[in-house]
Amino acid sequence: MSFEQNRDAEGAVGSSPARSSRARRAILCLGMLLPVLLAWGCSGIVSGQNTAASQPPPQTFSISGTIVPVTGGSGATVTISGAANATATADSSGNFTVPGLANGTYTITPSHAGYSFSPSSMNVTISNASVTTGISFTANSFSGLANGTYTVTPSHAGYTFNPTSMTATVNGASVAAINFTATPQIGQTYSITGTISPITGGSGSTVTLSGAGVATTTTDSAGNYAFAGLSNGTYAVTPSHTGYTFSPSVQTALVNGANVTGVNFTAQASPTFSISGTISPVTGGSGSTVTLSGAAAATTVADSSGNYTFAGLGSGSYTVTPANTGYTFSPPNQSVTISTASVGSINFTAAPQVTHSVALTWNASTSTVSGYNVYRSIVSGSSYVRINSSLDAVLSFTDTTVQNGITYYYVTTAVDASGNESAFSNEVPAAIP
Predict the structure, then answer these.
(1) Which CA distances in Å does 23 have to 130, 284, 318, 365?
(2) Does 74 share its domain with 122?
């Protein structure tokens, strides 16, 4: 815009129906620090580092959590809304991770046909770090049912139920008061016992009973377990212990007028692997926080050379995400799949995070004024929002709240002693690299 055009714009202030003519608008100028300084009839620069080389992408983070039990968590859909929208599917253990999220507040909502969740949703705020703890939901069954007829049957080792089952018909509304009375069994009951060996894997294992009755117990220090108070029927016995597999994985036990013994299992240590890599240069890599999510969750800190390692991992899919205040990373995260061997060379490059500011100057109003207001928008010609907290008595203002990769549009107004505010000045853009 030429200087003469600016003068013409000033002359139009008095006819504006939306603004008082007592305060004439100032002429806003902004300059960019470029190889050649462009003259606008006034001074001004966009400060900060400018370079022809492409900037690394903005740093992103992840949200990780768990849905229990696995019967309701496995395969559940997790929806992220708020600062950004995304979805993820919980793995077979009920774990989920949503990567690639910027700083901001998000709402996490799980869903799975036939289940309700407690809580129904959670709010999480990302502030320069991934959120990997405290995100947990409990899946409750018998919700989300379609119209139809269902049979509900309770079971519990050592108890009988009256009635033994009930029929419920869903027809356009939820059905409540499907109640049962549990009574301890009268008469002889039996037990199922066994041992899990060797004791390194057997001690402290969880053993689950299902079938004619349901129960859970923990093996003693020698790997022994027992389920008592059982009525006649067919049961399934399933052991579990983190870091171990079992042979067989499950056994069937038939209780028929006698105790069942010798339902034994062999525990075998699961092979574990590692994920490792380097973050360079060391100025950005040393001390970086590295977050692992996916089949397992963990956090480590890179050493003084930028090296990091996650050990003791089972087979599965993982995401590795580095973070360090004042740095961005390329790539921002990496996906890693472990099958039968450790994975190395998961490397990242750290670059200092470039911050920018916009320095504005303008010509004084030709009227007597008390000060000036500065407005900003990310849409040219509209939606301006004032960014100065109080009247600016000088003819300059520095905006330090800009974000990379956004073009801003600035205007100013003049305000007289009676609080009358002029129309907007000419608009000037500032493209933040």
Answers:
(1) 50, 51, 62, 7
(2) yes
How much is the mean pLDDT over the chain?
84
Give the separation between CA 323 and CA 126, rounded to whole angstroms. Answer: 13
For residue 204, which amino acid is it?
G
Check residue 54 and report its DSSP letter: P
Q: Which pair of structure tokens corresponds to residue 222? A: 């020698």
Question: Residue 168: which domain range?
Answer: 145-183
Q: Considering the domain boundaries, does residue 258 fall inside one? A: no
**Contact of 22 with 350, CB cutoff 8 Å:** no
Q: Which phi and psi (to 5°) does residue 106 adopt?
A: -130, 155
Sign of CA dihedral 397, 401, 407, 410: negative
Q: 35 with 66, same domain? A: no
Quick: pLDDT tens for 104-158: 999 999 988 778 788 889 999 999 999 988 899 988 776 667 888 888 878 766 6
Phi, psi of 241 (to 5 degrees): -165, 125
pTM: 0.38
CA distance 36 to 42: 15
374-378 CB contacts, 8 Å cutoff, 24+ apart? 374/399, 374/410, 374/411, 374/412, 375/410, 375/411, 375/412, 375/413, 375/424, 376/408, 376/409, 376/410, 377/408, 377/409, 378/406, 378/407, 378/408, 378/409
Q: What whole-number distance in Å separates Cα of residue 154 and Cα of residue 175?
A: 17
- Write the pLDDT tens digit of every residue in 242-259: 888 999 999 999 999 899
Looking at 157, 183, 209, which one is the last position of a domain?
183
